[in-house]
Design a protein that fits this description.
It is a single chain. Helix content is 0%, strand content 32%. The protein is mainly beta and 104 residues long. The protein has one domain. It has a six-stranded mixed beta sheet with strand order 5-4-6-1-9-10, with no helix packed on it. A two-stranded antiparallel ribbon has the order 2-3. A two-stranded antiparallel ribbon has the order 7-8. It is globular.
Amino acid sequence: MTILDCTVTGCVYNADRCCCKGDIKVEGHSAKTMGETCCGSFRERGEKSGKNTVGKISREIEVACEACNCKFNEDGRCSANHIGIAGGEACTCAETECASFCCG
């Protein structure tokens, strides 16, 4: 499992920089920079929605990875010990990125 720090406060799964979803998917099949990746699991927090209380808050999470050019991608899974997902108050998954992407 990977330790995840998520700064995407606009995502319904974000709770205190942790993800309540349990697993995420980093997209960006042919990415060569972190800006060409995104969190495919992102779901916008609506005006009326509060923090997600369905999932368990955890810093350790399973990360599926489609970024074939990332050195941490091992058979579609992230092998990094610690990653970050960036995007602040993103409104779409395209406004997020894997801040730990490293073209290898």
